[in-house]
Amino acid sequence: MSPGRLVLPVTLRDVGLFAFSARTDVTIARLSPTRGARTAFETVYARWDDPWRSASPYYRYQRRKYEQVIQLLPRDRFGRALDLGCGLGLLAPMLAPRVEEFLGLDIAEGAINRARERSAHLPNVHFEQSDMLHLPKDLDGRFDLVLVLDVLYYLSPLDAELLKQLAERIADLLVPGGLCVLVNHYFFPIDSNSRLSRRIHRAFKDSPHFSLVSEHRRPFFLVSFLETSSGPALPEHHPFSKVAS
User: Fold this and answer.
1) Residue 5 dihedral angles phi and psi, to the nearest 5°
2) Residue 50 per-residue DSSP state
């Protein structure tokens, strides 16, 4: 863990944000087993414009969290970035100045439509509907940066085998030496959510497809930066083979 000074990213009003987010998570957990993950997420985006209040100016936690993650990035520039489970696309305007191209994927078409509206003025930003458990193979080897923020614990059952497969699949998306940014909730060492986050991060750190660059704990999230040591090489003249210097 990095020993840097912890900056509290919340205010008292953010307690309301956590309560609203919990209600959204309960709705997804109730619907997913019988109606499927996509229907569950489409339902919460249809019910609430911003299911986790991530974009609300009333709360500061989510934006402060994204700002800290971006500040921690070990490189200034990247070629092509992929945001898995992008939601409303809030990372896009923050990262657009530092990447050649940005692609956001989310399982919910409702989220993608709103993300496109928010970033319509950014020519290097694109969004598509896709299920991260069934990503097309033509995405492999295209990205210098893959961001996986607050999404894996929605996959069920998130057992050791699925985590192993996810780490391998995400590594395949990256160019050799590409960077995976893994972020998950981290509240207190003994609570169940934090134990699940540690299990997710441990699975990626133990994967032979990644090596840990650095890890950082902040209130109330955990960040791991993982680098691929090998992977599918981009063919010559591939449209996304350019890497920003």
Assistant:
1) -60, 135
2) S
Amino acid (one-letter) located at 140:
D
Domain boundaries, the chain: 62-228
Residue 244 burial by CB count (10 A; 0-12/13-18/19+): exposed, middle or buried? Answer: middle
The pLDDT tens digits for 114-138 are 999 999 999 999 999 999 999 999 9
Distance in angstroms (rounded) separating the CA atoms of residues 131 and 111:
13
* Alpha carbon distance 169, 123 (integer Å): 28
CA distances (Å), 12 to each of 60, 64, 106, in order? 10, 14, 30
Stated as kind and residue range, the H or E segment containing 81 is strand 78-84
CATH class assigned to 62-228: alpha beta
Express each pLDDT in 58-105 by its tens digit.
888 999 999 999 999 999 999 999 999 999 999 999 999 999 999 999
For residue 202, give the amino acid letter: R
Sheet-wide strand order for 220-228: 125-129, 99-106, 78-84, 143-149, 174-186, 220-228, 210-218
The SS3 of residue 12 is coil
